Structures are given as C-alpha cells and as structure tokens.
Amino acid sequence: METTQHWLKKYIAFLKLEKSLSTNTVSAYLSDLQKIIDYVGDTQDLLKIKTADLETFFCQLRDVGIHARSQARILSGVKAFYKFLIIEDYIQNDPTELVDSPKLGQHLPEVLSLNEIDAILAGIDLSVKEGQRNKAMLETLYSCGLRVSELVHLKLSNCYFEEEYIMVEGKGSKQRLVPISQRAIHEIQLWKYDRNHLNIQKGSEDYVFLNRRGAGLSRSMVFRIIKEQAALAGIQKTISPHTFRHSFATHLLEGGANLRVIQQMLGHESIQTTEIYTHMDKTYLREQILSFHPRNQK
To answer: What is the set of domains in the chain, with CATH numbers?
Structure first.
C-alpha cells in the first residue's frame, strides 16, 4: 500500500508537468486536497469515495458560508486530483463527473476580512458607557461564531473563562461547548467592571451583555450597533451579526481547520453529521479552534 507521501509526490509531479501549474497554484490544489482527506479520514478512502459523498462535502461548504467562487476553486482542485487517479489507473470512474459547479450568481452572505473586523473594533468609542460592552460583544461574536440569539442570551453561569470555554444554547435548546479566545475573555472582563455599576433588572442578572437600563440586549440593538460601527469604519458591505459568524467559519477554513470541527462549533445539525458531532473529542475541537482562528494567532 502506497503511503500518503508517495501519493502527494506523484500528484505534485502531475500538476507541475502535465498541467504546467505554478508553485502557488499547486499549493492551493494541495490545500484543497487536504480538506477532502480530512473529510474522508484517510487518503486510501479517496479511492472509494462516491459522487454522493462529494455532493455532501460541498453542501457542508455551503452550510458554513464558503463563497461560491471558493467552492468552485475547491471543486476544480478535486477534479484535477481524480483526473490524476484515473491516469495512474488507481480508479476507473471519475466520481466528480456529475458534481455540479456552484452557481456564481447566487447571493451569499458577505464575509469580512480580518482587517475589516479590526477596523470595526478599533472604531468603537470606549469613552462612552456602552463602548466597552460593544467591543466585548463584537469580539465574542467573531471569536466564537455565535448566532445573534446565542449572543444576547449568553449567561455568566455558562462562561468558563479559566478553561476558555463558553456553553452556548443554540437552536432547539441544544447546548454546545465553544472555545473562546483570550482576547474575547479580556474584553468581557473589562466590560464586567462597567456592568457591575448598572442597576440590573430582575431576571437579567445572569446575562453577560446588558443595555444601559440593566436589561438584556435585543437582537435589533445588536444589528443597529454593528451597522453603526461598520459605517464608522468606512465599510460599504451589507453586514449583520450573521456576517461575523460567516467570517468566523470562512477564516477558520481558509486557515486550515477541519470542516467537521467548524460545523460543530457553529452548531449545525443534519442527518449526515449527527454521528460526527457525537463522537468528536472536545479537546481536539478546542485545539483546532485555538490553532486556526486569527484571534488566537500569537
């Protein structure tokens, strides 16, 4: 049985000699190939993959908000790999032949670059009472990839800062553990100084983020804050709290994180992925997020 390294050497030679691709393009193809390897679990399993498996893989890319152009690029790389397998007589039939390329004209959520996110956070006025709250809130939204409903309902009792985790209650009241970056923790701790001076209303004592009257934040208020801060940063994109969530997923995937890890962090549920979520090791999940999320890069 040929080793993974042997496969890769032959595939790199194929890309350079047969397709005359540049070094940068070859690196991009190999990066996309690694996503498929992570998905199936082993290079030998790539020989057995079916069209339906590949369609599920690309559906998952769409689920985490990967842009259609990025999907098309990944598909191009996958097709090149299976062409190589056919030429080398590893397989007889091409499983990518019937996989449709994504429609580039469809509307997909905007994704913010890391510089744009930093610009939004840098533009927050910390001299006003709600300034530190807004900074902590947006940092948490991006660092953890939360839905806006999960953000406004985040509870102090579900924050385990020493372990660098938060417990999130998602759709259908399903709970999940999500790693939180040290930067987000730092901003929340600073916000807690201001929070302690509020006259907190009954029933809101456990919410992390409160309005100036000491009550929980509304979804519409989070939308408004984000739109105002994006305008102050000179960002012309149409963004919402969900934009931070899609940016979280996109930046992780582009950084090399496993697609299955990203899905669990986002709390996505489906028939095909339920078993994956049940058996994934939480230490591994945390290591993946801390390794690949831009906020955790030292």
So the answer is: 4-87 (1.10.150), 114-296 (1.10.443.10)
